[in-house]
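ok trying this again, last paste got cut off
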Amino acid sequence: MTSAFDPVRIAGTVLPNRIALAPMTRSRAGEGGTATSLVAEYYTQRASAGLIISEGIQPSAVGQGYPFTPGLHTAEQVEAWREVTDSVHSAGGRIFAQIMHSGRIGHPTLLPEGLVPVAPSAVTPEGQVFTAEGPKDFVTPRELTGAEVRATIADYAEAARNAVEAGFDGVELHGANGYLIHQFLAPGSNLRTDEWGGSVENRIRFAVEVVKAVAAAIGAERTGLRISPGNPYNSISEPDPQPVYEALVKEIDGLGLAYLHVLEHGPEARETTVALRKQFSGPLVLNPATEGPTDHRALALVEDGTADLLAFGALFLANPDLPARLRTEGPYNTPDPSTFFGGDARGYTDYPAL
């Protein structure tokens, strides 16, 4: 029987275990969207994970959705990430960059002057976004033209090349949580009538083309995709998600991707996870729906074959040595959400070791 502490091959590398650090926004980037020494410390502390997946990194200036998030679209950003990847590798870790274009989730105050959030369609999301000036209502995004859709796909590919230049072992494309790729997939945010909207075939086209462009740029074996079928986060409406994601997986399965990463929203999502698991021939990373922070009880999902790797979020923030704690079934430090974002280093460094 396979366990979460058995090795697995991802991106041409044998990982020592099947425990991943889930991608989580940290909002601790420095000037110009650059990674800092604190970012390097955070990821290096968690290098015992089989795989580290970074916080969301914007592929372009207009792709930024939150304050103090890092990018991979300038030479300075690439150079800053090298400190992070070098440190993680020195500690024996492996790290993928999550490329995240936030699309309509953002605000003009977060962007260079003259830019506004962009999206498949000019549909205003409900709710507010946090900015350096406090919470602000979402604005109506500008609908991307057909040429701009193609240019945005190219931005993803260029960011992936920059990630490899910066020393990342691969990239994960963020197609979940209501950000740009998810906005194209969901009928509530994609009202287009051209080749990028309408039918299921057209709504999955952007995701498929981004995956193919990135795979061509850096190699499919270094390219992963994260999805969250039916997840309403960030004002997403997907009334019948399973056929959409089955069509998406069918289109990308033959590429030989590093992995498919499924983020479950609620226990009802497991049926879709199982269906996609059967359909996808490569490794499946699962961020499972659990009551409270995911802990050692979820390791059974590797043992029963539901997933090849498990991604852990909040518990990994509070327990940088989480793989060791999972092996002994605790004890666990309790996550403190007040330290998860912004400049307070306690969210990185101040939890006691096992």
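PB: full thing came through this time. The chain has a mean pLDDT of 95.
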